[in-house]
Amino acid sequence: MPTIVFASPKGGAGKSTSAVLLAAELAERGASVTFIDADPNKPVSKWGSRPGKPATLTILADVTEDTIIDAIEQSATESAFVVVDLEGTASMMVGYALSRADLAIIPTQGSQLDAAEAVKAIALIRRQERAFNKTIPLAVLFTRTSAAIRPRTLKAIEAEFVDNGIRVYGTQIHEREAYRAIFVFGGTLSGLAADQVTNIAAAIANARAFAAETISILKQPAKTGEAA
Ligand SMILES: Nc1ncnc2c1ncn2[C@@H]1O[C@H](COP(=O)(O)OP(=O)(O)OP(=O)(O)O)[C@@H](O)[C@H]1O
Ligand SMILES: [Mg+2]
Fold first, then answer.
1. Beta-sheet pairing, 81-85 with 103-108
2. CA distance 41 to 21
3. Could you give all domains of the chain from N- to C-terminal order, each with its CATH number?
4. What are the phi and psi torsion angles at 140 (to 5°)?
5. What are 3-42's pLDDT values in tens digits?
6. Residue whose CA lies nearest to ligand 1 atom number 9
7. Counting beta carbons within 10 angstroms of the beta carbon of residue 47, is it exposed (0 to 12), middle (13 to 18) or buried (19 or more)?
8. Helix/strand/coil for 54
9. φ and ψ at 150, to 5 degrees?
């Protein structure tokens, strides 16, 4: 079943955070999800070792450049969704994972400098498309944005992607304490207590919108962001 790969050479772009939000949301709806933690720093395995991970979410770590394609293909036969988190570099492992993606999500913060890193990720995906002779659907996801305002710079950067035929998520992952809290306390947003963090309901709504949009993109992946 579909493989969703989070990729960006920019460290701290929000890959691991967004990947966990998506995987946890899908798993909480009852879907079986295999999460491949392909970052040698294993941030997601650490999250999963704390209490509260959904029962239908399995984390696979210890994948290498030699094993990642097999790991993805095997997981895709067993689980409703495969989510892959990658480290913030352009390694062989990143390339191999992208070659098996039904959707590559490129998280980026809303500055021009961050967007330039997202463009590098898109260029890498385009090269993988040529190397593997297949289309890799992709979408840019703005992260750590303000829930209150949508600055003009962000709108301009978004418009530039869209003008270049790059799909951009309508949903943005806002900057929220709850998204840091799940890595501290473990588990999912709905498992957080009101005395641990405020505004949990808004964080849940944001993560749900992200998951719902991801599913809708997977249903019509070739509309934009396809190989030229
Ligand atoms: N939406 C958000 N709200 C609040 N904090 C966030 C959000 N997204 C990311 N962060 C924080 O920003 C930092 C970097 O995020 P994250 O680890 O998800 O990025 P990454 O792209 O996976 O980084 P790396 O390339 O190092 O793997 C972390 O401290 C994380 O808690
Ligand atoms: Mg990460």
1. unpaired
2. 18
3. 3-219 (3.40.50.300)
4. -90, 135
5. 999 999 999 999 999 999 999 999 999 999 999 999 999 9
6. 14
7. buried
8. coil
9. -120, 95
